[in-house]
Amino acid sequence: MARPALRPPPDPPAGAPLRVAFVGQRTYFEACALSAATRAVLPCFIDYRGGADAQAMLAAVRAQRPHVVVVFRPETVPAGLFEGLEAATLGFLTEPLPRAGNEAHPDLEWRLSELVLGDPHNFDRLVCFDPRSAPAADAHARVWRSLPLPVDDRFFARRRPLPGSPCVLFLGYSTAHRERFLMDVKHYHDVLHVAHGVSGEGLLDLFARTDVAINLHGHPYPTFENRVCLHLAAGQLVVSEPLHPTHGLEPGIDFLEVREPWQLQHAISAIRAAPEAYETVRRRGRRKAETYRASRVWPRLLSDLLLDLRAFGSSRTSAQE
Amino acid sequence: MAAVKVCLLTTGLGRSDVPLALVDHVPRLIAAHGVELTVALTERAGQDFEDQRLAGAAVAEVDDLLDERFDVALAASWRACVHVFRVSAGSHALYVADFEHHRYASWEPERIAAALVYDLPLDFICEARWIAASLGELRPEARCALAMPGVDGAGLPPPAPRPGGPLRVFVGADGAEVSGAVLEAMTEPHELVADVDDADVVASLAQSDGVVNAAREAFRRGATCVVARLERHEELVRHRWNGLVADPDDVRGAARWLDLLARDHALLRTLQTNALETARGWPDKEAAAAALHATLAGFASEPRGPGSEWPMRLMGDAIAHATTLRGEVEARDEAIRRLEAELAAASPDKPRRARWRGRP
């Protein structure tokens, strides 16, 4: 049965901030939300992951009386949960999906199978971090826009020079692909590999103690990891596999690009030999990271969402009908 | 004030040799401010003027100017910098319309040289605030002055609204390919126009850094714009006030903004009105030339700050870029070796040709 069209949600009074509930797994997504209020947004974060108590999450959301609910990994929300919720709902697709014309990969197929379990009618609009993944998502729910996950303001570090012996960090769980890259560089250099469980203050502390960040894809397919934006914001020099899309970052200018394990090892050797030589790249990257600052991105995106809903409506079911 | 004597070093007299905004200043610098301008050709000497605005200046090959003394030796591009220190002058400077090394891929050797000019002991004349800010951060000891392009004719009314008609879109030359994809993704009625004068909106979705000619021209003509979210746009385009800002790579999002403009005539009108107001706030060409003249005079008369005489960052940047290029070369070597091995395995009976090792 066709869902009824939704009237736009009520806007806040003129000049008042939007109350926004960010919903997602705190470990991964709190750093992408907004932790401090701005003139335009009054945020809160509600910890929720797939398989957790969805009704408790909904109750926590309702208690905030939000104008907008943002859900990271919208596919984790049970069917019909947001039916009747008097708020605009935005789902942020954070996982890569199969791309047309690219070789299939089991990891991508699995992520797509997770996505199709979600209920697209929970959301007024979907944002995907990857424009090349959007067509795969469209078969299930139309993607409205694509942009990288923002970075919470507290992760933006003051500019500091690279020290004489920079500390190298790799943040991410191990996969065969990653270990293929990391084996040699770990053999020759002291690389701090943090696989799991660091978030919030622990992550800030980790970033403050490290200077160079390695970014590797989990599997051998092109994508863009959100941690790149986090590292750049933290003022770290980023060495990464090619990013696709680049989201405005320029290889060799904002970060160093490596395509093979031996290139990574060479790059880390070169940085450790003459860290000051990479100061310009690091500074450019830090500067470019301002584009992802949460207090700039979220107010604009959420205001755009309400404007778009007024102009184009929504097919989400609503208590207002 | 004595006339400022300027040697403008350029690789030639073509339109690609000297930034457009700088050419635009030349007649006014000479006529209104008495600047004694000599164009010094560093390459391709003897070409005809492609832009007559340069014709008011004396033209010579740089080798013929080495006995003269100038107040300012101003290079128009990174390639022109090769001779800038050969010219005797009180100030050696570079005009920065954009960061030219961004135009080159990481495997192109020219990127190294183009990047290193920003480390030379030069003064910088920057065409936009974001360039001056970025250079100022990298080179806090250097003089980075702002010389914005002048705008004439701001005040033209926006094109008459056509209720029910398609949205008229002009595609900027920069990023025309991606803008074309955006138009294809639109669902609302629209029409591609050939002249910015006829446009409701200019789509300029280039992703490389540089100047924002398309958006500037749009505003001057009373049209609004849809641009990619880049640092360079921030001083010009205020999202949903005088234009719309889409995320880089987001073709669908940019198309949606155009669709919205096609539907929401009130929003379109508001953006156009504010775009025109923005344009009216810019300096006209006389004021812009006067500001550039003041900068040149200041460079000529005031001593540079301490620490600005040495290229402190140059070797560091050279090492970083050389390491990147070396990685590119070695990756190609590796790819060729793999390809050769695969070919040899596929046809083991064929005599093997001499191997190219990727090195002389």
How are the secondary structure elements laid out?
The complex is a heterodimer of chains A (321) and B (360).
Chain A lengths: L17 E7 L1 H4 L11 E7 L6 H11 L3 E5 L15 E6 L12 H10 L9 E4 L5 H5 L6 E2 L21 E4 L4 H13 L2 E4 L5 H10 L2 E4 L11 H7 L3 E4 L15 E2 L3 H13 L5 H10 L5 H19 L9
Parallel strand pairs in A: 1-2, 1-3, 3-4, 4-5, 5-6, 7-8, 7-9, 9-10, 10-11
Helix pairs in contact in A: 5-8
Chain B lengths: L4 E6 L9 H12 L4 E6 L16 E4 L7 E7 L12 E9 L13 H7 L6 E4 L2 H10 L5 E3 L20 E5 L4 H10 L4 E3 L8 E4 L8 H8 L3 E5 L15 E3 L4 H13 L1 H16 L4 H17 L12 H33 L14
Parallel strand pairs in B: 1-2, 1-4, 2-3, 4-5, 5-6, 6-7, 8-9, 8-10, 10-11, 11-12
* Beta content of chain B: 15-25%
State the end-to-end CA separation of chain A.
15 Å
The total of beta strands of chain B comes to 12
**CATH class identity of the largest domain in chain A:** Alpha Beta
Radius of gyration of chain B: 24 Å
The SSE string of chain B, one letter per element, is EHEEEEHEHEEHEEHEEHHHH
| Count of β-strands of chain A | 11
* SSE string of chain A: EHEHEEHEHEEHEHEHEEHHH
Can you describe what's shown?
The complex is a heterodimer of chains A (321) and B (360). Chain A has two domains: 18-152 and 293-312, Rossmann fold; 157-291, Rossmann fold. Helix content of chain A is 32%, strand content 15%. Chain A has ten helices and eleven strands. A six-stranded parallel β-sheet of chain A has the order 2-1-3-4-5-6. In chain A, strand 4 (88-93), helix 3 (106-115) and strand 5 (125-128) form a beta-alpha-beta unit. In chain A, helix 5 packs parallel to helix 8. Mean pLDDT of chain A is 92; it is low at 1-5. Chain B folds into two domains: 5-150 and 286-314, Rossmann fold (3-Layer(aba) Sandwich), CATH 3.40.50.2000; 167-282, Glycogen Phosphorylase B (Rossmann fold, 3-Layer(aba) Sandwich), CATH 3.40.50. Chain B has 360 residues and is an alpha/beta fold. Chain B is 35% helix and 16% strand. Chain B starts with a strand and ends in a 14-residue tail after the last helix. In chain B, helix 1 crosses helix 8, helix 2 (110-116) packs antiparallel against helix 9 and helix 4 crosses helix 6 (251-263). Chain A binds chain B through residues 131, 134, 143-148, 245-248, 250-253, 256-260, 262-263, 266-267, 270, 274, 276-281, 283-284, 287-288, 290-291, 300, 303-304, 307-308, 311-312, and chain B through 101-102, 106, 111, 134, 137-138, 207, 228-231, 239-240, 247-253, 256, 260, 263-264, 313, 315-321, 323-324, 326-327, 330-331, 334.
